[in-house]
Design goal:
6 strands, 11% strand, alpha+beta, 37% helix
Length: 268
């Protein structure tokens, strides 16, 4: 039955055009693969007692739009993807519950405002760690979850369910190239050289930057995810050469012209 139910979930996700889906056993959180790891209170079985499986779904944020970030274009894309994630997560959880497996969806962010993050720069559940446990990717220097398909240019949400499924293996091969571009591009030096799993990302500095951008309708920042060379999406959009982000490179004048045009309108 669990295999049949997994197929039903995958068909449902396919019908909603969800490109990334992973299944992780809830007890995988109890065997830390590295330190620091997710504290017990933040683990699936603590957030929703009875959880047996975590289903993680992901939508990409389009690379050419992210390349204009921070901009109103990326701002609106981010909002749209978030809304889609919440809707799909809710629908999957409801489907499973009606099948007799109590389930809940966890919203894609889980915080009320960026201002809250300045005081408590952490949500009650980490979709990044859930995606890692579900085999969708692994962590990079920028503290983001990198995927083979989209690098860090993807948003996730999770469904906690009492149903048991055949689960996916953790992706062992590191995706991060350690190129340091995310370190160098960060406008507030929030990303440091040590990288994940060491906690060397200044989340408060990142939150302060996001709050300032939000007042101008430009959040989120997006700088560290656009310059990441990882992801097949770079091939899809013909943007494999990350030298396009070097301001003095004469070969990519058109890229900068497009970026500057988008940034000039629709925001303060």
């Amino acid at each position: 039955m669990s295999t049949i139910l997994r197929r039903q979930i995958l068909r449902k996700c396919n019908g909603m055009d969800i490109p990334l889906v992973g299944f992780a056993p809830a007890d995988r959180w109890n065997d830390p693969p590295f330190e620091p790891w997710v504290p017990e209170a933040f683990r699936p079985a603590s957030v929703f007692p009875g959880t047996k499986t975590v289903i993680v779904i992901g939508f990409p944020v389009s690379l050419p739009i992210v390349d204009t970030a921070p901009s109103i274009w990326y701002h609106e894309l981010y909002r749209t993807v978030n809304a889609e994630l919440d809707s799909c997560g809710y629908r999957i959880a409801t489907f499973l519950t009606e099948k007799g497996y109590p389930s809940v969806w966890v919203p894609r962010d889980g915080y009320g405002s960026i201002g809250v993050l300045k005081e408590k720069p952490i949500a009650f559940f980490s979709h990044r760690h859930a995606a890692y446990c579900a085999g969708l990717g692994n962590f990079g220097l920028n503290n983001m979850l990198l995927t083979p398909q989209y690098g860090p240019r993807v948003r996730f949400t999770s469904i906690l369910t009492t149903a048991e499924f055949p689960t996916d293996w953790v992706l062992e091969e590191p995706l991060c190239t350690r190129c340091q571009r995310c370190v160098k591009v960060c406008p507030v030096s929030a990303v440091q050289k040590g990288g994940y799993p060491r906690e060397l990302t200044d989340k408060t500095a990142c939150a302060i930057r996001s709050e300032e951008l939000l007042q101008r309708f430009l959040s989120p920042c997006g700088c560290c995810i656009k310059v990441c060379p990882v992801g097949k999406d770079r091939e899809q959009y013909g943007r494999v050469d990350v030298k396009m982000y070097d301001e003095k490179n004469p070969d990519f004048k058109q890229y900068r012209s497009t970026r500057d045009h988008v940034r000039s309108y629709g925001s303060q």
